[in-house]
Amino acid sequence: MIEISKAVAADIIAIEDITKACELAPWNASDYISELSRPDSIFLKAALGDIPCSGFILGRIIPGVVQDAGVDAEIYNIGVHPGRQQQGIGSKLIETFLEECQNRSVHSVWLEVRSGNLVAISFYSEHLFDVIAVRRSFYRDPVEDAIVMRSNIYNVGKI
Prior knowledge:
Blueprint: E1 2-6, H1 12-21, H2 29-36, E2 41-48, E3 51-63, E4 71-80, H3 89-103, E5 106-114, H4 118-126, E6 130-139, E7 144-152
Parallel strand pairs: 4-5
Antiparallel strand pairs: 1-2, 2-3, 3-4, 5-7, 6-7
């Protein structure tokens, strides 16, 4: 059974390992630690069986992009340990993230993904994210376009 809860300091080593294994944009331990105390941060981890941290998702509540339209959120990173993928962990993480956003009156959730990461693009599309724009040469090492995706929070109940 997958259990989702707030990430805690004891999870940071496992989260750094997942970040490396999934080749995500690197964050250092102090960056993750600072997210734990930010009121605008949504930092969740997934436990599966006797493994306390098999995956994580990290994002923040941000001011809305349209004046007086409320607040949005952005997903910065989501990762599931490669040995634990295809078990529903990523889906449970993103669904819980979206529910937390709904609880905080978020209107839209945004993310960026490498244009060549077709598995991730498909995953996000399955979770009701739509392609909004392309940012040319956004990523480095290697240089690659970013696909900007958005989910309107009113769709959360339809997942």
